[in-house]
Design goal:
By secondary structure, the protein is mainly alpha-helical. It has helices spanning about 5-85, 85-165, 175-185, 205-215, 245-260; strands spanning about 190-195, 195-200, 230-235. The chain folds into two domains: about 5-165, Helix Hairpins, CATH 1.10.287.1490; about 170-260, Helix Hairpins, CATH 1.10.287.1490. The chain is about 75% helix and about 5% strand. The structure holds zinc ion (ZN).
Length: about 260
């Protein structure tokens, strides 16, 4: 294996870690922002409910005043009935009394409907107040959690970048140029050869290059995938069945970081 290749495997591990940390740091504040937005919306809803409750109270006060007016009018008309002299006058008074009685009945029904609406609004008010309290708590918790996670990621990022800065000068200039060029266009510069295939693009590696890839004695050779152009490497630990692939990958990267720092 080309000596730069092992270092570049470690470098790619660090580069991917930098990317993961940056992606995570970009995502973290979104949850806080979403909770803040939900909290603001719930407070707006509560304000609207409180305004509706006030409107219903005002409406009922007016309805009660109107009912009192009609009742006073009915009492006054009944007194006048005692002194009327003609049936026509009596009929006119009866008509007015009947109208006011109907109005009282209509206003009382309307008042009941308003009270029902108030009941519904009171329930909604309670639910919304609970939601607001809940969201305020979650927002505070999430803010703390996010701040801690951001601090943790910042420290990890600084640590990882320091490792990169130490590792990069140890890689040959041409290898590093190639690494940077492929990583820029492909996202990653290296791909492991697994089962005669490039693990990044799944293209089959022909038998001769595959044999070259597995030839650990060749320290000059650097192979690229004919399809995606990534630098291929072969991990002999693949032939050691006692380890899982993920563990192997990490242990290789870790040992190389240790060896090169
Ligand atoms: Zn490929």
């Amino acid at each position: 294996m080309h000596p730069d290749l092992e270092k570049m495997i470690a470098l790619q591990g660090l580069d991917l870690e930098v990317r993961r940390l940056n992606d995570e740091m970009a995502e973290l504040p979104k949850q806080v922002a979403a909770l803040a937005s939900d909290h603001a919306a719930a407070k707006k809803k509560l304000a609207s409910i409180l305004s509706d409750l006030t409107k219903e109270e005002t409406l009922r006060r007016q309805q009660e005043l109107d009912i009192k007016d009609h009742q006073q009018k009915i009492a006054r008309l009944r007194k006048q009935m005692d002194v009327v002299t003609t049936t026509a006058q009596a009929a006119a008074l009866e008509h007015e009394i009947s109208f006011s009685e109907k109005e009282v009945s209509r206003l009382e029904d309307a008042e009941l409907e308003s009270m029902e609406r108030t009941e519904g609004l009171e329930t909604a008010k309670q639910t919304t107040e609970e939601t607001i309290a809940n969201l305020a708590r979650r927002h505070a918790d999430e803010t703390t959690r996010t701040t801690e996670a951001l601090d943790r990621n910042k420290a990890l990022l600084a640590e990882t970048n320091a490792k990169r800065a130490e590792l990069r000068p140890q890689i040959g200039e041409n290898s590093l140029l190639m690494y940077d060029r492929i990583a820029k266009s492909r996202g990653t510069a290296l791909a492991e050869g697994v089962d005669h295939k490039c693990s990044a693009c799944q293209m089959v590696v022909r038998p001769q290059p595959w044999n070259d890839l597995r030839d650990r004695s060749n320290h000059e050779l650097m192979l690229t995938c004919e399809s995606c152009g990534r630098l291929l490497y072969w991990d002999p630990a693949r032939d050691a069945p006692q380890k899982k692939p993920a563990e192997r990958q990490e242990s290789i990267a870790a040992s190389i970081v240790r060896a090169t720092l």
